Structure formats: structure tokens, C-alpha cells
Amino acid sequence: MGFSYLTNVPLEQARAEYLTKLLEKGFSAENETVPVSGACGRITSRAVYAKSNAPHYAASAMDGIAIAARDSFGATETTPVTLPPDRFTQVDTGDPVPAGCDAVIMAEDLVFSEDGAVTLHTSAAPWQHIRQIGEDICAGEMILPSFTEVTPAAIGALIAGGVTELEVIRRPLVGIIPTGDEIVPPCADPKPGDILEFNSSIFRAMLTGHGAEAKTYPVVPDRFDEICAMLEKAADECDMVIINAGSSAGRDDYSAEAVKKTGEVLFHGIAIKPGKPAILGCRGEKPILGVPGYPVSGMIVIEELLYPLLDAWYGRQSDTGTRTSAVLSRPVVSGLKYREFVRVRMGYVGDKLVASPLPRGSGVVSSFMKADGILEVPQNMEGFSAGEAVRVRLLGSKKKLKNTLVVIGSHDPLLDELADLLHRGDRSIFLSSSHVGSMGGIMAIRRGEAHAAGIHLLDTETGEYNRSYLKKYFPQGGVRLVRCVGRLQGLMLQKDNPLGIRCFADIAREGVRYVNRQKGSGTRILADHLCRKEGVNPASVYGYDREETTHNAVAVQIAENSADAGMGIYSAAKLYGLDFLPVCTEEYDLLIPETVWNSSLVRQLLRTLKSDAFRERIEAMGGYTLDRPGELIDVF
Amino acid sequence: MGFSYLTNVPLEQARAEYLTKLLEKGFSAENETVPVSGACGRITSRAVYAKSNAPHYAASAMDGIAIAARDSFGATETTPVTLPPDRFTQVDTGDPVPAGCDAVIMAEDLVFSEDGAVTLHTSAAPWQHIRQIGEDICAGEMILPSFTEVTPAAIGALIAGGVTELEVIRRPLVGIIPTGDEIVPPCADPKPGDILEFNSSIFRAMLTGHGAEAKTYPVVPDRFDEICAMLEKAADECDMVIINAGSSAGRDDYSAEAVKKTGEVLFHGIAIKPGKPAILGCRGEKPILGVPGYPVSGMIVIEELLYPLLDAWYGRQSDTGTRTSAVLSRPVVSGLKYREFVRVRMGYVGDKLVASPLPRGSGVVSSFMKADGILEVPQNMEGFSAGEAVRVRLLGSKKKLKNTLVVIGSHDPLLDELADLLHRGDRSIFLSSSHVGSMGGIMAIRRGEAHAAGIHLLDTETGEYNRSYLKKYFPQGGVRLVRCVGRLQGLMLQKDNPLGIRCFADIAREGVRYVNRQKGSGTRILADHLCRKEGVNPASVYGYDREETTHNAVAVQIAENSADAGMGIYSAAKLYGLDFLPVCTEEYDLLIPETVWNSSLVRQLLRTLKSDAFRERIEAMGGYTLDRPGELIDVF
Lengths: 636, 636
Description:
2 copies of one chain form a homodimer.
Chain A: H1 11-24, E1 31-35, E2 48-49, E3 59-60, E4 64-67, E5 81-83, E6 89-91, E7 103-106, E8 111-112, E9 118-120, E10 130-131, E11 142-144, H2 152-160, E12 165-169, E13 173-178, E14 183-184, E15 195-196, H3 199-209, E16 213-216, H4 224-237, E17 240-244, H5 249-262, E18 264-268, E19 272-273, E20 279-283, E21 286-291, H6 295-314, E22 322-328, E23 332-333, E24 339-349, E25 352-357, H7 365-370, E26 373-377, E27 383-384, E28 389-394, H8 398-402, E29 404-409, H9 414-425, E30 430-435, H10 437-446, E31 453-455, E32 458-459, E33 464-465, H11 467-473, E34 479-493, E35 516-517, H12 522-534, E36 547-548, H13 551-559, E37 565-569, H14 570-575, E38 579-593, H15 600-609, H16 612-621, E39 624-625, E40 632-633
Parallel strand pairs in A: 13-16, 13-17, 14-15, 17-21, 19-24, 22-25, 29-30, 35-36
Antiparallel strand pairs in A: 1-12, 2-11, 3-10, 4-6, 4-7, 5-9, 8-9, 18-20, 20-21, 22-28, 23-27, 24-25, 24-26, 26-28, 31-38, 32-33, 34-37, 34-38, 34-39, 34-40
Helix pairs in contact in A: 3-6, 4-5, 9-15, 9-16
């Protein structure tokens, strides 16, 4: 099967033609009547008019007395007027003004005599201190026009105007049908091949945030008739339907057949990445979307193809988001055939807004979570170079980006703990870390794209860490080196060391599966150095080219019996219960440009490094030594 | 009683000291554990770590076959390698890679022979087309730091990481206690003196929108012991309590006494307007806010004094909103004693962002609803002049303001219908109208503060409408006059005309209560003209100084027997079932500056005026004649 029959329709065309066809078939919003008190955030479907006046009676606007104004005419300081008790009525604010009265005099201006009469020293203007009927709202007046969001104040105005219920656009109900034999409910211990059913939870949250209601149907196994039956049921019960295909290409075609049998398929295959195998179909006027199984693909398809349907339902303009210019930290290469959506992390370093591409796999939902923006690479464009100014669609606020400490360099799980501590200490501050290895960190600092870089680079000639690299790459200075931690590096091995590995050179033994770190990482440089030192030929090591970008990822391969050995830090071995063969203690320091040294972000970072909370967390992780973290190291 | 014992503490001071004292007493958030699938929008209370790897097994990233890579080594176009069926396994995307296999070859690259063997023409790189375990998330890694909002993608990442529930900050529960003998449930036919209980619905909507949950208690009558008992109950059951006093000063003091008896009062009387009589109290660590009964006062107090408590609960920075510079269209005079919050309508006319103050009464909830921004007049400042550049806090988006047609001038209910039709026709377009009378409209156009002004100004010498005024006020031209409607003006009278009023001059009769329009309005000019023509001395007319700013407001006074007669248009008389003594048909035209003539907003306005929908609505209202609406009138 494969994707051979898929079309490759440009996104705009598919979106526009799909909507046009749906509208032709009668796709449109329905309305419902709801009580005013629960209508906040809803959208009126027609103009709402007041049923009564607010206030609905002439009301005193003060505490005091109500009188007929003409009774006070002529009163002055020298010629006061005295009113007997039957010529006035005491009123509190909000009380009705009695018939025959047309003015209120404030309590502060009154002098009462013992017989209960009141003496006035100024004459009252007719209607003074009286809230006229309808001052706020007149019966019959339009309170809200059509297609207007009901705000808290509007709720007050509606109730004040005697309106107790109103007609609003009904929230569209979107049915979500998860399919696939291998799909299992969320749990902590799935079996190999099981795929946790989390897409419907993501989709539900997205839909709810976009004004829809979601109904998730039970998982349907990969049986054509059952899928068709569920599609029919959902299309009967809902306003729109999402069928979430498994991740296999074969299954996508299967969904398309089912949509075709239930209704019709308008498009199958859109020129976007991720999201290409999307199906745009319908049953009568009801949209049926086939959404790919990879979560990121699914999210992109919902954003780009389902949100416009929700916008059309509500008759609102699509929110195209805020776009901003940013400098790309690494190149982005993209195919000519698709428009590609690349998630990026962002941050201001000085005045420069830097965008770093995140891993692009369509299964990598964590990169969607970490994204601060989306970079679109248009169809027929090969991508962008590093350093190029690109337009990015922001997912958060610029304010957050200005308060984000950008850390690019060597990976250590302590960076996550540091991020948490920083944010706990000052909730306006965020730390975003990218793992590109120590050398990548040095380059990012040279290009002015990071506030800090974690580095642990061994000078194999001197045995010294980091200093000689700084002298080489920053001959003019301009950077400072800050103590962070000493950490124990070594060979991580499966629990109880079943292969009996005793030294680094054993990684070249027959039957040992090694897993490596990426080139440019300090740990890779260490491994290469050990190979030379121990006379190991890397080409003879199985898996020496198998690269992971974090200590944890290396440890996971070993813990899950996908590899037998890999270099990493003790805390990672400890986290996954691995055996550990110590090799050395290295200095993991933070490199910081002088240009940002005095920024509040960096100052807060240094304070956190020196804190007891940091020490406690680091000690709990194991394998670290702390020697005055946050202090400057003399380099130059 | 009165307000004599109230303090007048500056807002910032009250806010800061109140929060400090609450924190000293132990005010702080509580946490709760919730299922991940329902956690969207919640805030983590601590860092969340993955429990399992995602993917949790090495998975094929393609449809094809899984092999041991070494079996393919050496394969080229000229020296292909053939694998028998027992040396490979067919896999679909997402399938586990079988033990012993470390590479996947795409289906497209395979050639099968009849005996089921497969021939390869290139060698496979180890681990190609395989999603490594933990590619997305490694067990033990931090997925979300503390105090972070859970997004749809985060829900996916959490479930993928084996997390099924997590700890989030519990939404604070705010108890709302409405009080007052005169408070009645929302209805369409309240009795005089009844006050509809809509504050709790407004407050509930505000609180919900700000991350809290609200619990509204039954209305408590004005009995001290009952109020104290309800305060205790609410403080026991909730995290914060709002006691919503009636609008009378006396009752505010009553609430303060009750808060004092239940706990303590920290402040009573804040230097803000509206909102001065607010009470900041507590019972132990639980805040109790006394919120004034006038809805606008209550909303300001909740925004300025309760929102900061919710922000403190969540540990988030207060959202101080977007501020922008605008030109004030009318002066704002404010007292020195308070910081005043003035609601303004806003709109761009050309490049000029104009802010027009809305009615400031604290009972006028409709002005809060109509507001596009809030202008703060600081304490110790007398206000701002017309034309002054002021800083305004935006309540909506600038984009909306740029799509808002600003109409300032004479009132006619047809403007609301026009607003509705315009917005129905193009939901990105809004119309905002302010009623300042025909002369006010001419002045607004002269100052460049409106796109259009409704005017109906009678030249009493020629009997002609509008033209001579334009020649006088726009001697250089620069404006165009557009036909809108002819409308029937006359004397509106109580139903069945109980006083037997037969002509305009009868308004001066003893016992007739007249209600007038404001000076500068076309209708007032007409009334003044009729007085001169009919020999009526305005000083002898009861209520001639009683001014309302709309036709509807005049009609309401008559319909509610608060007046007997007033000038107005037929449609208003019809709406309220009044008798009507026709006086003349006048031309109600729209004055439009040439500078905005070609704007899309004005073009859409003209199209709407010419539409059948406009004709239908106008005909339904009654008393209008339509003669080519939307066409230009030759003036100069």
C-alpha cells in the first residue's frame, strides 16, 4: 500500500476547497438557548435586547431625604426653608423615590429639629441625586449585537436588563475515534508494541481550548466494518469527527477507505510535514478528518485543518498568531515537496532573539511541549541557514522570552533541576536548555546565542578542563567561567554486569553492544581519548557510531537491554539502576559571556548555584562533587 | 453612620500591606492530585518526572523489514545481498524491532523473489529507521518544572512518559455572599425598590476566568447575626470570601462590623473611585473582602484587590495588561482624593487612537461592558483635558480597535441595528457609537475623532437640514454628507394621552411633567425652536432642564410615569407603546470626513446602508422613511 496514492495538495488550497465544499453541503453552526449566568465566554448568535429598564424605578443615589424640589425653592443660608415631616421621606441609597418627590438631599446637608422637621439652607435642583429609570439600560435597547462574546460585565448588563436567557452559538461536538489493535489505555508499564492512547487526550484539550466539546469513543481495532460502524455512529452523534489512524501508512489508507464508505473523501495527502497523510472527508455536511497517528502530525493537522472549521462554525477570523523575527541558531534543511512546520525554542540573548530548532520527529511530542514558536518552511524552499533571520510564529509571550535564560551546550540533568529552582525562586524567570554538546555550547556563546553553556572539555595534554579551550576559542576574552559541579564519568553497564566488563577496552569485545554520545560532546571527546589511550580501534566497537544526545538516553538503551555499555555520568547510571565503572571526575562548568554577566537573569542563576536548595538536589542525584559552585574560575 | 469612619488608604499601600499580613497569617495555596487527561490549563505545584520511556521499545520508523545490519554489509547495486526469509522480519511503522535486529529497510527499497527471500542493493547502517527507546522522553527526566501551565502537548508528553496523575495547585474556592433585604433573584419584572441579584453572576464569571472556583451562598437579609453566621460558614468552607454589601453606606459599615466580629478588618476605605468603601479583612489566613454593592465598584474592587490574591495563590505575576497612548476626546475631571478608574471607548480614526470616556456612574454596568479600555486618573490629579494624550489600559486587542467604525453624534437606535448588520456582514468589523448630540458629532468630526456622525440639524431660517451647518462649520469642505433616513419627530405622550395634550405648547401647562434632551442635540434644538415658534417660555415648563441623552431614555421616563411628555422619534414612542403627536419629518444624515472616505470600514458602512437587510430592520422599527440611503448629498 504505502503512500503511493496520496495526493500532495498545497495546504491553503486544501483548506479553502474543503471549507467551500462543506459550506455548499450545509455545514453551519447551530444555536442554543442558555441561562445568562452561565453564558460567560459564549458567542451570541443574534442581537440581544433589554427586556426591562435598569434601574427599573427612580432610585435615590444618596442616603438622605426625598422631597418635591419646588418645596425647597428659595432656601439660602440666610433664608432657610423648614419642611414638616409629612413633606419629606427618609431614603437610603437605592430606595425608590416616593411619588410626588423629584429630588434627594444628602444626609450631610440636613439639620433636623426636635419636632422632626428638617431645615434646608439651599434649594434643591429637580432630579438631583436621583438615578433615573433606565440610566444604565433602557428596555428594548440592544445590549449585545450578534456574534459577540459574553463578558462578565455583559452578564451583569443582561440580568440588569431583565434578560435571563439568551441564544448563543452551540459549542460544536467533535467526536474522536482512536483506532488500532496496538493502542492501549494510558499506563506506566506498557508491553513492547503497545502504543499508549494519549492522542485523544491531547486533541480533547486542544479542542476544548478552541471552543469545541470533545467526545472520545472507545478504541476501535483495525477491522474495516467496525471502523465504518463507529464512523457512522460518531457522525450521527457529533458535528465533526476525527478518526485517529494508527501510525502505519497501511492503516491510513484503511481509514481513507472507511471514510469513503461512510461518506466521501475530498483530499487524502496534504503538502505539509508533519501531517502529510491527513484525510479531509465528510458525511453530508459533517466534516470527517483522518488525523495521522503520530502525535505531532496529529496536532499540526488539527491546528491547520480542524481549527479553521471551528473558526468557520463560530464565524470568527482565524487567529494567525503573532509573528516575530528571530535569528536561527542552526540550519534547517527541508524538503521541497512540503511546507514544513519546525518547532523552535526561543530566547533573547541581549537584544538578539534566537530560535533553535527542536527535534523534528513527528513522534516527539516533548518537542511540541518545549516549543516557544513554530518556524514554517514554505513548500519549494530548501530551508534556512544558521544565522539567517527568519519569521517565527510565537506560541507564548515575548515577555516570557525576555525572562528566559538560554543555556546551550553539554547535557546534564542538573540543568533541569536548575531550571526548576530558578523558576521556584522567581516565577517570572525561565531556563531553556538545548543539548548540543560542549563544543556546540562554545560555538553558541561565540555567536552570542546563549546566556550560558555547560562545558566539560578535557585538554588531554594537560589533563586540565575547559581553560585551554577558552584560551583557544576566545583569544580576546569576553567570557567568564563559573564553577558548577565536579562529576563522576564512567562506563555505564547493565545491572550486575552480565558480560563481565572490567575496563574501558572491553567495549571492543565481541558481543558487547556499545552506545555512544554525539560528536562534539565532552563525553564523546572523553571516549575518543580513552580509545586512543587504551589502544581501542573505534571501528571495531559495535555501536560506536550509534549516537544519543544525553546521558539519560545512553543509560536508557543499556537499562532496556538495547545496548550493553556506554560512557556517561554516575547520576544517570544511578537513575536507571545500572552498574558503573568510574573513569574520572571531570569539571562541568558554565561559560557565560561578559555582555550578559550583569543581567538579572545571570545574577539569579549565580545565586541559585550558591543556594542550599541546589546543593540538596545535586547531592540527592549522586556522583557529583560541589566545590564553591557559582564562583568565578580564573582563566585568562 | 455614613462614610465618616472610612479610611482613605492609597491603593498600592492597601494591596501590599493586605497581602503581607495575609502571608504572615499563613495564606498560601494548597495542592491536589488530578488525572493527567483533565489537567490542561492547571499549574504544576512541583516538578513532574517521567515514569517510563517513550517510546518504551525500539520501534520501526518505517514500513519494511527489520534485519541485523551486518547481514547487509557489502551490498551494492552490482553485488546485491540476498536474505532468506528467516533472516528478516516484516514490520510496520511502530512495530517493535525484533531481538537481534538493529536496522529497518524501507519497503520501497526491497525486491522479493518468489521463494520469499529479499534482495538488498545497499548496505544498511546500524540503527537506521529505528526509533530508539526514549527518543521522545527518558524515564526519570523532568517533563515539567514546578509552577508551569499544563498544555495539550504536555498532556501528551506526560502520558507518553507513563505519568497518569500529577500534583497541581488547587483552584481556590471563593465564597460569594450576597446581602440585602431588597435583593431579589434575577427576573424580568422586579418591583420598585427590588434590586436584582446579578453581582454574584458577574463576580463568578470574573473569578472563573481568573483561575478560581466560585460558590454563591443564598442572599442574606440585613440582619447582623445572620451575616456573621454566613461569614463564618463561608470562611470555613472556602479559601476566600466576598461579602457583597448592599449599596447603602449604612450597610457597608454593617458588613465591616460583621467582618470584625468574624475575624478582623485590616482596611475599610481605599482611595479609589469607584470602589472606595471596600473592606479588606480576614479570618485567620483566609481573606474576607467586603465588596461594594454597585456593580462597577464591585468589579473594580475585585480586579484591583482580589485578583492580586489569586495571583499570590498561584505565585504568578499579576497581569498588568497592555497600555497604549490615546487622545482623549472629552475632558475627564476627577477628585484629588482618589485614584479614579474611568472606562473609555476607543477606536482608530486614521492613525489617531481616540478614547472617549463612558458614563462614570458606579451603577452603570453597561459602560463597563462597552469599555475598550480603562483610563486611570492618579490620586492628587484633577484629570485630563480634551485632546490630551493619555495612557490607557486596553481591555481588548488593538486589531479590534483598528476594525472599529467610530460613530459619534446624534443618537438613533438605528445605529445599534447598523452595528449588528455590519458585524453580521463581516465579523471582523465593529461599530462603536457615542451619543453626544448632532453638534457634538460635528465637533468630533472637526477634531478628527470619528469616522461618522449622525446629525439632524434644522436651519430654522431655511427649513433645510444639515447643509447650512456644514457650510458654517466646514467652510473648507473636507467632509461628505450621506443620506441615512428621514424620521418622524414629535411629542411622545403617555399611552392614551391621559392629560389630553393636543399641541407642543401644552407642555407648559400646570401639572405636565416634561423631560428634555441634552443641549446640543438636534432634538433639543428642535424643542427650543418650537418653544420660540409657539411662544412657550422654557422656564415655565416643569422638567425642561431634566435632560436625557437618548430618545429611548426620554420615552422610558414617560412610559414609567416619571414624566408626561418629551420630544423624540416615532420609533422610540412605538417601542414603549406611547402616544405620539407628530411634529415634523427630519433628515437624519451621516457626516463623514473625506480622509476616511475610502477606508474599508466606511465602504462597508455605505454598503450596509444600501442593503435590503437595513431596509427591513428600519421598516420594522417604524416612523422612518428611506430615500436612497447611502447616497451622497450635494452640499458644497
